[in-house]
Amino acid sequence: MARYKIAWLPGDGIGPEVLDAVRTVLDASGLDAEYMPGDIGWNMWLAEGNTLPEWTVELLKRSDCAFFGAVTSKPPADAMAELPRRFRGKGIKYSSALIRIRQQFDLFTCLRPCKAFPGNPGNLKEGIDIVIFRENTEGIYCGAEWPRVPQEFYAARGMERVSPNAAVSMRAITRRASQNIAQAAFEFAEKHGRKKIRAVHKANVLRATDGLFLDAVREMAREHPKIRLEEMYIDNCCLQLVLDPLKFDIILTTNLFGDIISDLCAGLVGGLGFAPSANIGRKWALFEPAHGSAPDIAGKGIANPIAAILSAAMMADWLGERKKGRDIEAAVADVIKEGKVRTPDMGGKSTTMEMGRAVAGRLR
Ligand code: ATP
After folding, report:
1. Is 263 considered catalytic here?
2. Confidence (pTM)
3. Domain span at residue 144?
């Protein structure tokens, strides 16, 4: 029997393509794992009216961890328009399978490293090595939205009902989730010899929610006196990331800010093809490239699988197979440095599988 049970969720868009390349690499690494395929995403919406069917949830519960490719992120209104007729009128709502997994399995840490691998033509500056800790279960992603503004909203502000043509989203921040993500960041800093954490927020405007977040972060900082805590507004953070990315080490932030900063940081080191990610809870985790389904290049076999391959290195590390994790990352670094195999986003003509095979070849 294999040592690890990994739920394997290719999804749709470029998900299946990059996951094929990842399997080539994982097989070459000798990881002793059984890969259990699971249904998720757009095809499940069309077949079952549910992007995350119950049997997939059961599969996830039986696994040690999961590896996920991508799913189409249609706006809910568009998705509802394509819901098969037999499901209509049954109160079914469209929701993101990935957000549901993060919330249901309490995967409160979204860990996203952004590293400028030497020789990558997309690097804005050499030496960038930023790790983002993004709270993963709440904030503006808590799913509380009102397509019409309730009358009480105006009443509480002493306003006449201003316009029926308005909508509200709620941003929920809890002390518990803020403590969880802060603890993950400080413990990571200590374990990896990093010196500084920058808490990114907008507490001058979002006083209640980001005030609470900052309070939990400062409390955690007092328990970890060797790590320096600095605080920065989200707008200034975006500016400084572009002007001087080398001054950043670990970024600790809430859900939406972390989502946006992740893409910004990916842009500093070659784009979304280089941005891996891990969603980690207390006992279970899901690994995935940070990119989405990339419909503009899906089906062409040209997506860069490096983000997904680096996510597999993070998975090996999380499973306790640290050497395998390091070896996979070193193999990626070698292939990038050599520069013979490059996908179109790197200015080359190689395919997804050619990149996968090149990395796997270094491991054999
Ligand atoms: P979704 O709707 O699923 O979020 P999207 O197109 O809005 O898809 P991404 O999938 O994250 O968002 O893609 C953003 C851009 O980055 C696209 O132009 C896409 O082609 C490019 N991109 C994303 N991933 C990769 C990759 N692995 N290799 C090359 N280009 C990529």
Report:
1. yes
2. 0.93
3. 139-171
